[in-house]
Amino acid sequence: MSDVQLPNSDKSAVDQPDAGRTPVRFRNPGLPAHQHRRADSDPKAARRAERQVLAMLGLSALGTVVSLVGYFAIPLDGTFGTLRLSNITLGLGLGFGIFFIGTAAVHLAKTLMPDTEAIDERHPQRGTDEERATAAEIMTASGQESGLGRRPFILGGLVGAAALAPLPAVALLRDLGPLPGDSLSTTLWAPGVRLALDPSAEPIRAADVTLGSVFHVIPENLYESSHFLDEKAKAAVLIMRVDPGVVQYRADREGWDVDGIYAFSKICTHVGCPVALYEQQTHHLLCPCHQSTFDLTQHCKVIFGPAKRALPQLPIEVDDEGYLVATSDFHEPPGASFWERG
Questions:
Q1: Under CATH, domain 193-326 is a member of which superfamily?
Q2: Looking at the record, which segments are called Disordered (predicted)?
Q3: Domain positions in the chain
Q4: Which of 55, 73, 85, 335 is a good FRET partner for 209, with 20 to 30 A between their CA atoms?
Q5: Distant-in-sequence, close-in-space partners of 302: CB < 8 Å, separation ≥ 6
Q6: pLDDT at 11 (0 to 100)
Q7: What is the pLDDT of residue 200?
Q8: Residue 218's closest CA among 266, 270, 287?
Q9: Cα dist. 30→6, 34, 91 in Å?
């Protein structure tokens, strides 16, 4: 321990009364006399403080274990009792884990870490190389003086409690739901699935799609899905019939249309709004949200707006009964673009 050392300028400070009332300058009162802690001079007190810190770290670790047990060992069978028990153990376990690791750190700092008071004079923000080297030496010495190196049990307890503390949070993240897998890239469309009217799910005959008409389409089996709204958000389609010579030929799309009947995803590739406006004269599809415009004559290429990808095309054909059916799923993910699609 070292006593307080005041700057020379402060030592020379004196009262200079101004006409017996307000002093021009106040004397620097300095710091009160330093009160040494019992742990600094009494080895028994130091050992007692060390045991207290260890006990707190142990309680922190115990709280973490209790929260893990509450999460994994208590089955949620749908009853209020198990739900309440799970919440109580999780809450108390997490609370004890965080509380006692904090109190242990505070108690360690107040009882066992160096208790030296000093005044550091102001100086330019960046010191000389010699000063920086001196600072590094001081930091190293401070680490040694913290006593953690001489108290391996406290250091081990601190490391153990800190390592266990994040585990409940990691376990709870699992409740955010399963990973999506390929569900964002696949839809209900498959070979042989009939194109049906939205929302009646009535199958569509190719002969009923007249030149210049547009249909809002869903898979015929949509309502058989347990999450049909989620599936509809990916599988919704628009079909339009145009003069086959209007659409530019693409060898890789050979056979994807039925005598000028084209099927494209209805979900805008910008942020997923429904592309519901079709201009019959220009053959443009317009998204009403941000005005992205797609040109049917160029296989729904983006010609205006913030969308970056063309609308995915659904390859279709006619089955033996004259109904329009898909020949496969989309060949690229429908819907809004995200990081995986560029």
A1: Rieske [2Fe-2S] iron-sulphur domain (2.102.10.10)
A2: 1-46
A3: 38-112, 193-326
A4: 335
A5: 269, 292, 293, 294, 308, 309, 310
A6: 47
A7: 93
A8: 266
A9: 7, 11, 47
Six-digit token pair at 233?
A: 């958000």
Task: Evaluate the CA torsion angle 208, 211, 217, 221 in order and state its sign.
Answer: positive
What Å distances lie between residue 306 and 163, 218, 266, 311, CA to CA?
46, 26, 16, 13
187's CB contacts (< 8 A; 6+ apart) are 219, 231, 234, 235, 329, 330, 334
pLDDT tens figures, 86-140: 889 999 999 999 999 999 999 999 998 888 877 777 767 777 889 889 989 988 8
- Fill in the amino acid letter for 88: I
The model's pLDDT over 159-212, given as tens digits with 9 standing for 90+, comes to 888 888 888 877 777 777 777 778 888 999 999 999 999 999 999 999 999 999
Instruction: List, for residues 256-265, the tens digit of each pLDDT value.
Output: 999 999 999 9
Look up residue 326 and give its two tokens: 């898909």
**For residue range 97-107, what is the model confidence (pLDDT) as tens digits?**
999 999 999 99
Scored b (16 or more CB within 10 A) or e, 57-85 reads: bebbbbbbbbbbebbeebeeeeeeeeeee
Q: List pLDDT tens digits, range 303-318.
A: 999 998 999 999 999 9
Strand, coil or helix: what is 88? helix
User: Beta strands 261-265 and 237-241: pairing type?
Assistant: antiparallel
Distance CA 80, CA 26 (A): 68
> Residue 117, CB half-sphere, CA atoms under 13 Å: how many?
12
Structure tokens of 189? 């469309």
Alpha helices, DSSP H, located in 150-193: 152-164, 167-173
Beta bridge partners of 263: 239
pLDDT at 3 over 90: no
Instruction: Give dist(CA 99, CA 60) in Å, integer.
Output: 7
